[in-house]
Design a protein that fits this description.
143 residues, elongated, single chain, mainly alpha
């Protein structure tokens, strides 16, 4: 019996990311790399979440087998992030506008090269098999 895949962690659910995404919707230039100089809250958010800014992530020396995934097109990164356990899309399954600010630090943290991933508490919801077993026990008691 195999266990179901773990749910994906959503980048937009991390503290501050949804606010930055909203600002990028209102002002397109906010999603551009140059915006980090004008809006320090972008670097503050990436530092709080991953321990390094996008500029610091660019300066990190990559391992020899690094595939430059952070430079690939957003749809390619979305698929790769999903394979790594992360959802980097909005509620309509579009890549986040601010993904460019987060992809470098997130890739480095996911792959254990630099930075760190934000703490995620254990889920308090029971696994599917526990719920199914409880339902079967309830039906059995009714017989």
């Amino acid at each position: 019996m195999t266990s179901p895949a773990a749910p994906l962690r959503r980048l937009i659910d991390l503290p501050g990311v949804n606010d930055l995404e909203y600002r990028a919707i209102l002002k397109r230039d906010f999603a551009e790399p140059e915006a980090r100089a004008e809006f320090p809250e972008i670097d503050a958010c990436t530092t709080a979440l991953f321990g390094l800014t996008a500029d610091e992530a660019e300066a990190v020396e990559r391992p020899a087998d690094w595939d430059d995934i952070e430079c690939k097109a957003a749809p390619v990164q979305v698929a790769a992030f999903e394979a790594a356990g992360w959802d980097v899309t909005d509620d309509k399954r579009r890549p986040l506008r601010v993904l460019g600010h987060f992809s470098g630090p997130l890739w480095l943290a996911v792959r254990g090269v630099a930075g760190s991933l934000p703490f995620q508490a254990e889920s308090t919801e029971p696994e599917a098999w526990v719920t199914k077993l409880a339902a079967e026990a309830k039906r059995f008691r009714k017989r």
